[in-house]
Amino acid sequence: MRFHTNRSRVSSAGTRVALSAATGSPDSNSRVLWIKVSARTGNGSIIYFGDSTVSSTLGYELSANDSLELNLRDSGGSVPLSVFYADASGSNQDLDWAVILEG
What is the CATH architecture assignment of 2-101? Predict the structure, then answer.
């Protein structure tokens, strides 16, 4: 298993970003066993976390300091990092994230 942390920035509200596109991210095909996402303390808008259908109004809603943890290993599986996206209702919002990857 490998552990990795990073930050994804939604520069323009309404423009979803793939977590795997963040500078220094693992390969987008890396298999995620566990992920925790957290809206950065300084965020002034809602950030949305989800899959490729996430938008600036749809997804798991996170206000500043909110977090979400998903343990995919407990349900017997994993998904590629490329599955996860973020969007926000305001520009320049940050999502901190940590993953445990297979291998």
Answer: Sandwich (2.60)
